[in-house]
Amino acid sequence: MAHAREGRIERALTAVGTLSLLALMLIVFIDVAGRNLFNSPLLWGTEVMEVLLGLMVFVFYPVIARRHGHIVVDLVPVPRALRGFQRLLAGAVGAALFGVIAWTCGRQALRSADYGDASAILGIPTAWVLWGMALLACLSALIFLAQALGAWGRETVLAEEAR
Questions:
Q1: Does 75 fall in a domain?
Q2: Exposed, middle or buried: residue 82 (CB in 10 Å: 0-12, 13-18, 19+)?
Q3: Residues 32, 111 contacting (CB under 8 angstroms)
Q4: Alpha-carbon gap, residue 130 to 156, rounded angstroms
Q5: Are 140 and 148 spatial neighbours (Cβ–Cβ below 8 Å)?
Q6: What does the angle CA 15 – CA 139 – CA 49 come to, to the nearest 5 degrees?
Q7: In the chain, which residues have pLDDT < 50?
Q8: Cα 116 from Cα 126, distance rounded (Å)
Q9: Which of 124, 93, 95, 125 minimizes the C-alpha distance to 108?
């Protein structure tokens, strides 16, 4: 049951990220074509692209963390006996970094809500965007923490050791 729920959440996040990328590409295409062919760019294009870019990046962070899809560079050969500690350390560092990102975005969302910040043309409340980023960064931190504690990724660890 838990794996099915995790799979649905991962698929939903992937779909949202993919759709935001598609929307981003369409808006850029329409904006560039309108600017170059008709001398009339999308007035709201930049604001929507900024929100979509933030959404796309932060939606894919938990998916990449869950799939162990982050970039790994082996600079120092680690003995097989220390690989578990290496995974623990990597998960702990990832959890700490995304925890800081979540906290910072949440703090900025509170400030933005207090000031009533919104985008200039469409009036998109900045706090909404920042709360979404904070929530997704928190989800990434929790995934890294779970990986550090060994709750997830056993099949991935076995696949890595088979390589």
A1: no
A2: exposed
A3: no
A4: 32
A5: no
A6: 50
A7: 155-156, 158-159
A8: 8
A9: 125
Distance between CA 76 and CA 112 in Å, rounded?
A: 43
Residue with tokens 């894919």: 60
In a domain, residue 32? The reply is yes
Give CA torsion, residues 64, 101, 50, 48, to 10 deg. 80
Cβ(32)–Cβ(107) below 8 Å:
no
**pLDDT tens-place string over residues 9-26:** 999 999 999 999 999 999
For residues 52 and 27, is the Cβ–Cβ distance under 8 A?
Answer: yes
Domain that holds residue 125: 2-69+81-162
The Cα–Cα gap between 119 and 34 comes to: 22
How many domains, the chain? 1
In what helix (H) or strand (E) does residue 107 lie, and over which residues does it extend? helix 83-115
User: What are 105-122's pLDDT values in tens digits?
Assistant: 999 999 999 999 999 999
pTM tops 0.90, yes or no: no
